[in-house]
Amino acid sequence: MIVGVIGKPNTGKTTFFNASTLSHAPVASYPFTTINPNVGIAYLRVDCVCKELGVKDNPVNSICIDGTRLIPVELVDVAGLVPDAWKGRGLGNKFLDDLRRADALIHVVDASGGTDEEGRIIALGTHDPQFDVDFVEREFDLWLLQIIKRDWQRISRTAEAGTQKISSMIAERLSGLSITEKQVIESIDSLKLIREKPTTWNEDDLFNLCRSIRKVSKPMIIAANKEDLSTSAKNVERLKAKNLLVIPCAAEAELLLRRAVEKGLVEYIPGDNSFHILNPEKLTLEQKKAFDLVNDKVFKSWSNTGVQQIINSAYFDLLKSIVVYPVEDEKKLSDKTGHILPDAYVMREGSTARDLAFKIHTDLGEGFLYAIDAKKGVRLGSDHILKDKDVIKIVSTAKRG
Ligand SMILES: Nc1nc2c(ncn2[C@@H]2O[C@H](COP(=O)(O)OP(=O)(O)OP(=O)(O)O)[C@@H](O)[C@H]2O)c(=O)[nH]1
Ligand SMILES: [Mg+2]
Predict the structure, then answer these.
(1) Atom of ligand 1 nearest to the CA of 229
(2) In DSSP terms, which residues pair with 348 in a beta bridge?
(3) Cα–Cα distance for residue pair 71/343, rounded to 1 Å
(4) SS3 40
(5) Ligand 2 centroid to 372 CA: how many Å?
């Protein structure tokens, strides 16, 4: 699973990316700072099972801080897009190509209304961020439409002649975009388009189809960024009234805190509702001012920076993920070398015990015999559907380690 960061230029996409992945990709107050995609590791924040099991863990693939588990997930930051990007304006549809692999999108908007639709700085509060939400979605839809329309006449006729299904031909054209035929069928049916008669689908039908495919295959959360600015609160309310999932954030504040943690200046776990300065007397005046500002404009007004909440929401609300803890010794809850609760895996809801085995290692999946639910001490079959916070041992004919 991978989540992409999308939006017009200069909204803070790279700042959001750097804050969540602790990367150092270039950030600047002008459009098109990012050209090539940045791929990095962000973390999901969850309550670790170590608490409920009453054990002291020592994770390998993830981090546990006092019962808060941070689990690595992939995030990709791409170039900004401008109206008509699908036709090649700005950096063209390169950004869309860079998002091919994304399973869900975080749409970073400038909630302060201080940048125009091309990302140029304008007076605060003068641009409507809802305009950006609409145009970015439309660009995505038009880009899909362009792909489907390339040889629409031919494929719609082929489908009507009965040689091949329209859903499979559309899915084929969108393959490599993490879009499945099932999602295409779901979209066709939801619009009540007649699958056997694609030549009767008009331009609007095709556009709506693309919109629907985008919605099911690339679910989106709106990150209403720059919450620290005075004009943002009003816009956040307006965005929330019109869109399904909106979470306000302050990417810059999160970045400042994460860097401060790196330097040992503050105690802060991403997603916390406050931060703690370790040695206030050692701060420079400038640092003190910056922390005061973050406290006032972010924590006091919004309770958190929103960045962690958005990443969690992308994985849990949009992608419906669960977290599973594989172990090799179901009694000690450890791996072979004695690490307690070594790994935490993020999986889609509905994943089975066998899926987990394959995720750990192909050999383990192929030699799968059964699994053990370490919490209950019971055997599970290959098709057993896993739950969030399951601790599982896989028993397989494959020898590991
Ligand atoms: N006030 C405020 N400014 C922010 C915040 N996040 C980012 N910015 C500023 O917004 C500007 C653009 O940031 P970038 O992260 O480069 O934006 P981008 O969306 O990646 O831009 P492109 O790569 O050009 O598309 C910079 O001046 C950032 O400092 C925030 O939370 N609050
Ligand atoms: Mg950027």
Answers:
(1) 1
(2) 321
(3) 9
(4) strand
(5) 45
Q: What is the pLDDT of residues 241-283, one digit of tens each?
A: 999 899 999 999 999 999 999 999 999 999 999 999 999 999 9
Q: Closest Cα partner for 290 from 310, 265, 269, 272?
A: 265
Residues 74, 26: Cα–Cα separation, whole Å: 19
Can you tell me the distance from the alpha carbon of 187 to that of 253, in angstroms, rounded to the nearest whole number?
39
Tens digits of per-residue pLDDT, 89-121? 776 667 777 888 899 999 999 999 999 999 999
Nearest Cα neighbor of 315 from 127, 43, 124 is 43
Cα of 79 to ligand 2 centre, how many Å?
A: 6
Lookup: tokens for 319: 């992608």
> Which tokens go with 322?
């669960």
Let me know: does 31 contact 23? Beta carbons within 8 Å: no
Scan for tokens 């896993």, then name that residue: 386
Give the largest Cα separation in the chain, rounded.
79
H-helix or E-strand spanning residue 171: helix 166-173
